[in-house]
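Tutorial, part two.
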Amino acid sequence: MRPFFLFALLLTGTFASAQRAIIRHAYGPFGTAGDAAYIVEEGRIYQACGPFGAKGACLYVYTEDEVYHSRDAFGIKGQGAFRIEGDTFYRCHGTFCAKSACALLLEKQKVFRADGAFCNKGDAAFLLEGNTIFLAEGPFCNKTDAILQVQGEVPMIALLAILAGY
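Running the prediction step on this input gives:
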């Protein structure tokens, strides 16, 4: 009887191996959580539907260093969208994700807008503080209102792809 339960436990562990992270809208200076906005799982970023985060259409497909637009709602890789190199997040285009202009620049927990091929640092865009993402302003990244709250483990490339759309 014990080997059967052990086998059943191991078998269910392999089926439940997908890690699912939910990114919710956040409001105010304290980051009050709202409805689900995105679901990140298995190398895909989905649109979330409803307050509990039912999986909607797939928006992006990502690898370790590239993000692609989804060709359909099920997550088939389409044209290139973004590429990450170190702490710099570039836009890219084409099937092979050829590097284009710079989009975001990451400095520890601060995210700045960046321009051009040489990534000239612009004004602050976001501040990552714990599991909450705040809008930021000015050259010193002053924190304003919260916009998103992360529940679970989200790779930095997926988080930057979502933030590049804001």
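Helices lie at 2-15, 156-164. In part three we will examine how such features are distributed along the chain.
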